Structures are given as structure tokens and as C-alpha cells.
Here is the input.
Amino acid sequence: MATLIDAAEFTSNEVYQIQATDPVEGAASGASFSGTGISNQPHQQLANRTAFLKQRQDVNISNIGVLQSFVANFTGAMGANGYLKLPVADINKGLIQYVIQWGFVNWGQPGNPHGLYGPYSFPIAFPNACEVFLPITVNPNASSSSNGEDVIMVPFTNLPTTTQFWVYNNALGAGNDNNSGFYWIAIGF
Here is the structure.
């Protein structure tokens, strides 16, 4: 039994309708429609469309798989201490996952002495490095005349690791300061 060989092509509004006056004509050398014959022409056109649609479907399935894989890289955890992972095609590092983390450290009552505090843990470990760390003080007793006395900074000798960070309570006055804790944000990959 011979079969029609489909070609992946789509031609809109062109499926031949066999007319009442058309003779029955199958495939043969010299038959109409380039040897397909009148009786086979609509079948050939529908087979070609089916092959075209199947080809497009296969491409779509492949693209959907790629998108699902990409979307799966967007993960995170909301909360007082949380994180967000974002897939990025970095122009210097290639395809990486940025990690943005944030949190709050509560020292309790204001009045901690100056000095190094930590280590504190990130919610998740950075896979490669922490590139940016920004602490922001919480000072319930701050006034416009405090002249920025309550400053928290990360000393260069204790940059964050992939899992932990330290802070230096660096108020400019003598004795204890008014910091009751600090918020922080860190970015890495």
C-alpha cells in the first residue's frame, strides 16, 4: 500500500474540495496535482498541515521546557530575614544566579558598647561570594542633633563570607550608643 509523503508546510484556505464533476483519480505519473491525483490532493494538503503543526508543537514543547527551567531558578523566602534568587545573564560572569538577602538583627535595648559584633548568619549561603553588604542602624532615640553618632559599618578586615557577616558598632561618642539593632541587605551570587 502506498502512502502520502507529508511536507511540513501550511497554506491557509487551500484544502482542495473535490467537486461533483471531478473524476476519481489516484496518484500516478501524469496525474493532476503533480502526480498526486484529485482524490488524494485534500489528504496531501491536510497531511502537510499536520506535519507543519507537529513541527511547531515540538518547538513549542522544547521552548516551554527551557522556560520552565528558567522560572524554576526564581526562588525565595519572604520574611524578616529572607532572600530572593534571580537568574541573570551577567555580561562578565555569564549565566549566574544573583542572590539578594535581607534581615534584621535586634540587639534589644539601646546601649551596646562599641565594638565588633557577630558572626551573624545569612538566611542561605551565597554560592560564590557576597559582593555588597549594607547595614542600616535602628536608633529609636535619634534626633536631628545626633550628627550621625550611631553608625554601623562593616570593617574591611571582616568582609562578609558566603555564610556569615560581622558588624562594627562605631558610634562616635564616648561610652555606649543608642543603637537597638540594624537592618541589613546583601547582594551576591
